[in-house]
Predict the structure.
Amino acid sequence: MVVDSKAIISYIQIQKEDLAVFRFKPKEGGEVPQFKAGQFLTLGAHVPAENKVIRRAYSIASNPENRNYIELYIRWVRKPLPGRLTTVLFSAKEGDEIIWLKPTGPFTIEEKMPNGEPDNRRIVCLGGGTGLAPFVSYAKHLHAIGSKREVVVFHGASYVDELGYREELTRLEEESLDKGKDKWNFKYRATISRPDEWFNRTWNGHKGRVESFLQSKDGEMSPLEKLVGEKITKENTVFFICGWQGTIDGCLDVLTPKGFVTERNKRADKSFEIKYESYG
Ligand SMILES: Cc1cc2nc3c(=O)[nH]c(=O)nc-3n(C[C@H](O)[C@H](O)[C@H](O)COP(=O)(O)OP(=O)(O)OC[C@H]3O[C@@H](n4cnc5c(N)ncnc54)[C@H](O)[C@@H]3O)c2cc1C
Ligand SMILES: NC(=O)c1ccc[n+]([C@@H]2O[C@H](COP(=O)([O-])OP(=O)(O)OC[C@H]3O[C@@H](n4cnc5c(N)ncnc54)[C@H](OP(=O)(O)O)[C@@H]3O)[C@@H](O)[C@H]2O)c1
């Protein structure tokens, strides 16, 4: 049975007209519900035109150690018609009430290998657009628990003003450089997929969609391999991908021929190297 609880929108930060960070707190006060990094929260609102409650899933961008609020990174869907729930959210004010369901979902980091050994492999995250959200949660969580695993976060966006969390993720990388990889091992790279548009004229970083970090020409190392300084293998790396199905497919087109396997098609011994969450 669906159990609806009430939350308050405690903070809204508009990044651009149709992209924003929202924070939510329990209406009755106290701590937010427990969750794992990578899980999603279901929000609901009564939509008068349809005379029913519309519920939608949103990946949590805050980390589980933050018990004060849950943060989401949301795109206002406007085409071909205004999205039902996102239109409610982008018309809301701080202090407004909304329905939420308990966080859930399987897009979480594995701490152990199927044989019970600790999973110490490098974590490579590829997020398209708002698909960055679960990886912000991963990064903050792994930082908060003092993880020693190497973490690489790649973010792809169409426009430079859609690189949400850039400052925060850059700071996490700087901390890694300052403290040393043995203390905190974190890298963040962004890419712009429409580099020739006038609005993106100042961009001098990586160009192309996020999956291009995995692609290579003529047996050369991929941008990912150049960044980490070694060949990527099943033994040293695990991949997490979130975005449009085209983004997932673009990554799988590179990884599958190399023998990497998704959790959904795991081997008989239950091993896998890829988890993904698709926009559907
Ligand atoms: C696990 C998971 C995590 C997610 N995480 C995030 C996240 O972190 N951030 C995020 O922004 N989104 C996320 N989403 C997507 C989110 O759940 C919603 O699908 C999205 O916000 C759109 O909801 P909506 O009600 O506004 O749009 P909807 O009303 O569901 O509309 C969906 C599409 O249908 C079109 N449409 C609407 N009405 C009609 C109509 N009458 N006829 C024809 N077409 C119509 C809309 O234009 C739109 O293209 C996630 C989805 C999943 C499954
Ligand atoms: N977990 C989830 O299921 C989840 C999480 C977050 C968001 N969402 C939903 O997904 C929707 C879109 O997200 P967004 O607005 O954040 O994305 P976006 O800004 O439209 O796109 C982000 C990046 O993905 C690329 N892209 C777009 N379509 C693609 C395709 N078919 N194949 C490969 N790459 C593609 C874009 O490249 P171009 O510049 O070339 O278009 C851009 O680089 C949102 O409306 C949200 O509702 C779902």
In short: The chain has five helices and twelve strands. The mean pLDDT is 96.
